[in-house]
Amino acid sequence: MSSISHTDFLTTVRERQAVKHFDPQHNLSHEEIKELLEIANTAPSAWNLQHWTYLAITDKAAKEKLLPIAYGQRQIVEASAVIAVMGNLLAHHHAEAIYEQAVQAGFMPEEVKTNLVRQIMNSYTNAPELAQEEAIRSASMAAMQLMLAAKARGLDSCPMGGYNASLFMEAFGVPRHLVPVMLVAIGRKSVPAHPSTRLPVEETGFWNHF
Ligand SMILES: Cc1cc2nc3c(=O)[nH]c(=O)nc-3n(C[C@H](O)[C@H](O)[C@H](O)COP(=O)(O)O)c2cc1C
Q: Which strands make up the sheet holding 178-187, listed edge to edge?
């Protein structure tokens, strides 16, 4: 991985593109991938429940298994790693441990922890749809940070929703409490990405009311 690190955040954001062709000779070490995941982990999440779970697919055989599941998209086998980002439907089970960390670190009094954990458990019990919504929402934030972390480390990425989630779960033994959110292919680009455009903010942004 390049040691060059962009200090200019806006440059990193502007230079990120969905790359379709990666150098298959380029490898990422376990440590390099772990660092990217640690940066992704700093994403915000509802109640700080950190709903994300990652499966790093780096072995040639595992990539070959994923290739047909992702409809033959070559990024799967050419990228150095494919990170399957999943959302945890049982993230509230971590509430106690997460808030205990905060208490131990001196960030929160015990009674605030007790109230928050109770609030989380009530919310998850009373609104079952919340589990899926929060899992996808928060894991998507981590996926975005993963792509920006890769860019900041001189790498490129491609977010991928084009895969059969059911087949993926079956083929990789994904536990039922995890919901696939997207695949993120990461590596060194071999062909520049297609330029893309955006709708103007005049069409997508509104002020105070519609
Ligand atoms: C949720 C999601 C799913 C996507 N799925 C795929 C995919 O399966 N294959 C692919 O090549 N690109 C995929 N893309 C990349 C988009 O095509 C790309 O982000 C978009 O065209 C804008 O280009 P840019 O990211 O280079 O600016 C996906 C992007 C997102 C956010």
A: 52-57, 81-88, 178-187, 156-160
